[in-house]
Request: fold
Amino acid sequence: MRIVGLNGSLRRNSSNAALLRAAMRVAPSGVQIVLYDGTAALPHFNPDLDADGVDPPPAVASLRTLLIESDGILISSPEYAHGVPGAFKNLLDWLVSTGELVDKPVALLNASPSGGTYAQSSLAETLRTMNWNLLEEACLLDPFVRQRIVNELEDEQALLVLQRAIEALVRAIAH
Reply:
């Protein structure tokens, strides 16, 4: 089983990237979590470049293929000014018209120090609008606050909660 991890932050050492790396470590045997790192290379969304009969830009085509070929998606995004970071919203905008992603199982994680409730809510609404299968039982806000992550997430209690969320995503994919 292959799950793609999408990081909503462009920061190299972001707590959201650390959270996704921790997910890779606690994933069940036989589950591969692959991290997508091309968000910064995506062009600004332009509907003219996403029209019927128009080939999307290569970076967009690669992202779409990666996600279509995955079994599920794991998103970890920060919250900026009570919303989703612009670069990550741009990534999602490029995926709106990708019908092959309808009903794709997805889980949301968040490592924002403020709790990230605004971004989490906004992301959930966007994903529901895109008709992705948002798995509430695999979505987590707490205990993944930034203060528990120093380069890597090592907190045993938090890792156990993360492991349970990944297992919930895996169960949903398997059914």
